[in-house]
Amino acid sequence: MITDVPGVLVGHWTDREAKTGCTVVVLPPGTVASGEVRGGAPASREFALLDPTRTVGNVDAIVLSGGSAFGLAAADGVMAGLAARNRGFETKAGPVPIVVGLSLFDLAVGDGAVRPGPAEGRVAFDAAGSGPHRVGQVGAGTGATVGKWWGRQDPGGLGTATIRSGDLVVAALFAVNAFGAIDDGSSVEDIGPPVRPDGGDEGDDGDGDDGDGDGGGSGSAANTTIGVVVTNATIDKVGCLGLAQAAHDGLARSLLPAHTGADGDAVVAGATGQVEADPMHLRALVQAVVASAVRSVGAD
Question: DSSP code of 194?
């Protein structure tokens, strides 16, 4: 569990009938974070401040949500919850909570009129730390599906994994909603072009639509894998960017294919700063833990 990193809390809001939800990862005070987006169709909030050149260095919480770009509103409820606890970036007018939001497209799976919003984000925030968090088709993973490259919609969901090396802990939590499929690493065959309802392929709809995963392009249905990696290592914001890049390497290991034009794959990587660690070792651990987290979704 990502909560294996001391101080990290997780809460969910889930609507099983509408097949959507959101997941809140509350980080301990002082957590440094950065992130990276790959793939052609992201939906995100406050992602620009994760750039190492930006002023804000710490992140208070990360929201993973269904509902496409509508689901980014769940972060408003998380901000309200953090403000009530007097957490955030200090300003003369008081603390401003720093909440990064990442959303996936699940509107075509259940009831697209139901989307996580501020109230649902607050419910998930208030649930964080109330007990062991669940994985699978819960929270942001409720409406997640995979295998759409082949015209299928197999169950996706939330996956998690932890790797320990002495006192060092690296953990990941991912909502796996990929255009491709979960890959065990054994495939060496040509997967062929993606199946499209119009008979075309991902790059040629004939109408300029490249299968945007956030907008629900004609051949993509519902996509994007989003996640969080957290470690108790001491590392700066530039180092966290390297961990986010390594996390995408883990996605490339465990999704076939990853980072398509119909996915908005995005990762936030945070470090809580308790243990000294070699940066190269950290990146190797992140690659492995992300691949394991994704593959746990497809495990029997």
Answer: P
- Rounded to an integer, what distance in angstroms lies between the CA atom of residue 276 and that of residue 43? 34
Residue 228: DSSP 8-state: E
Distance CA 31, CA 198 (A): 46
Residue pLDDT tens, the chain, 300 long? 899 999 999 999 999 999 999 999 999 999 999 999 998 888 999 999 999 999 998 999 999 999 999 999 999 999 999 999 999 999 999 999 999 999 999 999 889 999 999 999 999 999 998 777 889 999 999 999 999 999 999 999 999 999 999 999 999 999 999 999 999 888 778 889 998 755 433 333 333 333 334 433 434 557 999 999 999 999 999 999 999 999 999 999 999 999 998 999 999 999 999 999 999 999 999 999 999 999 999 775
What are the φ and ψ backbone dihedral angles of 135, each rounded to 5 degrees? Answer: -130, 180
Distance CA 62, CA 98 (A): 9
Region of 234 (left: φ > 0; alpha: ψ -120 to 50; beta: rest) is beta
- pTM, two decimals, is 0.91
